[in-house]
Design a protein that fits this description.
seven-stranded mixed sheet; elongated; alpha+beta; 14 strands; five-stranded antiparallel sheet
């Protein structure tokens, strides 16, 4: 544990109380000048620490950033988030950074988070609005022992995990829209981008990216009718670290269920949370467009659509719009 982290831990133990610089110096075993330098670093990370020549220091507010030590504190997982957590103030894309690390051999469970993204991405190269400190932009490296054709199951695992996280921590009514959108009142609050590197019969690695609108007070004009945030829905800011911890816990839980019990339990829970089955939709695919009613999602995660002429179509991937 670094000197800075030890100092922070002690300030947390005494949160709300004043602690003298002399006491901190003796407790941690560094000079009072070094105490001040580390206090300055903690303030740069978003911790609100008051100081007084007579009283010393007092931690009055925890950082709202997705800092590795804050994510690990109270994290109830065995692998996910337990190893390396890479934190950026800003990066182009957490998925891009995760893929670089995966190529270099980063182990399963490695987590990449950023406070903002300059080139946040969604499906099919779309951009993801990623303003500073408003949302969660997180990518997890996985190395599942499964054939490449089963990779879409991981998106279902992630959708269930993200939806359950919001249900557990907020009062929001959450639904999953096939294949990878998390909705509140039919507006998108989170999205999933799964990317894969594989050979013919084996997966080398997968990167699962989660983007979630948390403390966004406003959204751009071009998406404000289609998207929302926890803040917009509740009028209150929400600690992002709590969401990341809960998401990692549930992601690991369902990832293990998929490994040990197969896809059926995942799909069953997904169907309990989805608002897509039974809906009349338009689905746009490359060079094709279908209109009809969703009959089911099968054991491969494929959407079954019945069109106006009574014909059935198996949709592996596409953009769905409710009618």
């Amino acid at each position: 544990m670094s000197t800075k982290d030890r100092l922070l831990g002690y300030l947390k133990e005494c949160k709300g109380d004043w602690v003298s610089g002399e006491l901190l110096s003796r407790r941690i075993g560094i000079t009072r000048s070094a105490i001040w330098k580390n206090i300055s670093k903690l303030r740069e990370e978003g911790y609100v620490i008051e100081s007084s020549p007579r009283k010393g220091y007092s931690l009055s507010r925890i950082s709202e950033m997705l800092l590795p030590n804050e994510i690990r504190e109270g994290l109830d997982t065995g692998v996910f988030g337990r190893g390396e957590i890479i934190h950026f103030r800003e990066t182009d894309s957490t998925n891009a950074r995760a893929k670089e690390l995966a190529i270099q051999g980063a182990p399963e469970g490695t987590l990449i988070v950023s406070e903002s993204q300059t080139k946040g991405r969604g499906r099919k190269g779309r951009s993801w609005f990623s303003p500073s400190e408003a949302g969660i932009y997180a990518s997890l490296i996985l190395r599942p022992n499964m054939p490449p054709n089963e990779a879409p199951r991981i998106t279902f695992v992630t959708a269930v995990s993200a939806a359950e996280t919001l249900l557990a921590l907020t009062s929001l009514e959450v639904a999953i829209k096939w294949p990878n959108d998390i909705l509140v009142k039919n507006r998108k609050i989170a999205g999933i981008l799964t990317e894969i590197s594989a050979e013919m019969d084996t997966i080398d690695y997968m990167v699962v990216g989660l983007g979630m609108n948390v403390n966004n007070p406003l959204l751009p004009d071009d998406i404000e009718e289609k998207a929302t945030s926890i803040f917009i829905e509740t009028g209150k800011r929400f600690p992002k670290v709590r969401i990341v911890r809960e998401y990692l816990r549930r992601q690991e839980k369902y990832y293990r269920i998929l490994r040990d019990s197969g896809f059926e339990p995942i799909l069953r829970r997904w169907k309990e949370l989805t608002n897509t089955i039974g809906k009349r939709i338009v689905v746009e695919m490359i060079g094709k467009r279908y209109t009809g009613v969703v009959q089911d999602v099968d054991q491969e995660g494929v959407l079954i659509l019945k069109d106006e002429k009574g014909a059935f179509h198996r949709i592996l991937s596409g953009d769905v719009t409710f009618m």
